[in-house]
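Technical annex, item 7. During the second reporting period the consortium partners agreed on a shared format for inverse folding records so that results from different sites could be compared directly. Each record opens with the tokenized structure and is followed by the designed sequence. A conforming record, contributed by the partner at site C, is shown below for reference.
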């Protein structure tokens, strides 16, 4: 009987230890708590600040990011790249992945917006008040994201085609791998004009914004987020999406010239 009592006491002690361990407020960051995000290149400047704010309130989650054109990132995800979360700058590429059951439909959320602007180098004396000004002989080279894989280029093509300009300037167009490369081409003088997002233009002190493209000329620029169907950390990825839709995140986005599309404030 004495041995039985001692055994019960030992078991209760072990159970108590296990319960105590489970009551820890959060666990140290591990591979299971790491999420990999594939994000459109236009988020390059703002996302680090967003991630810092998120990690401050979620100290058990670490966020790593891979930037690129939304089309190319989408193709990587289609091929099984180890990605938990996709942040695109248009709906088209997210739709493609959802139709192929690579994105969890229920996880999709639109979190921010943007607008297109036409830019030149800071040292340039160009004046282009309208889209039709791109026809001027003073414009020799126009940097724009490849419309096939880069959403900013897709939006630009829609806008310019709607005004009958695209075909007339096609010989001036220089396609880039993503919107940030279009910005760099104008900054370095490779192209004397470029079409980029307003948020990209705001990040550079080496360019002038010549004109804003009317948003009615193209599909609305809305950024969707979605968790991959093969993610090994769906819960934390969805937590990050939830954070993207908070007032705190929206204020950060707006400070980088993104547009609040959900009236969170």
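Designed sequence (site C submission):
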């Amino acid at each position: 009987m004495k041995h039985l009592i001692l055994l019960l006491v030992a078991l209760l002690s072990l159970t108590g230890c296990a319960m105590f361990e489970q009551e820890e407020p959060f666990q140290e960051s591990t591979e299971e708590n790491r999420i990999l995000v594939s994000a459109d290149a236009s988020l390059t400047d703002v996302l680090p600040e967003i991630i810092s704010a998120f990690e401050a309130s979620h100290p058990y989650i670490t966020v790593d990011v891979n930037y690129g054109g939304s089309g190319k990132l989408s193709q990587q995800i289609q091929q099984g790249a180890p990605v938990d979360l996709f942040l695109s700058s248009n709906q088209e590429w997210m739709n493609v992945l959802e139709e192929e059951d690579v994105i969890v439909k229920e996880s999709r959320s639109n979190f921010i917006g943007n607008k297109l602007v036409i830019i030149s180098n800071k040292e340039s004396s160009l004046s282009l008040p309208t889209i039709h000004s791109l026809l001027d002989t003073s414009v020799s080279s126009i940097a724009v994201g490849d419309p096939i894989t880069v959403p900013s280029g897709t939006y630009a093509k829609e806008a310019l085609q709607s005004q009958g300009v695209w075909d007339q300037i096609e010989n001036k167009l220089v396609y880039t791998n993503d919107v940030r490369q279009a910005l760099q081409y104008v900054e370095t003088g490779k192209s004397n004009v470029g079409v980029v997002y307003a948020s990209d233009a705001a990040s550079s002190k080496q360019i002038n914004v010549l004109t804003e493209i009317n948003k009615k000329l193209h599909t609305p620029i809305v950024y969707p987020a979605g968790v991959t169907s093969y993610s090994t950390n769906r819960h934390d990825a969805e937590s990050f999406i939830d954070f993207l839709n908070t007032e705190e995140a929206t204020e950060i986005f707006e400070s980088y010239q993104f547009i609040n599309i959900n009236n969170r404030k």
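The chain is about 40% helix and 20% strand. The beta strands are 34-40, 62-68, 85-87, 109-113, 116-121, 142-145, 173-176, 193-197, 207-212, 222-227. All partners now use this format for quarterly exchanges.
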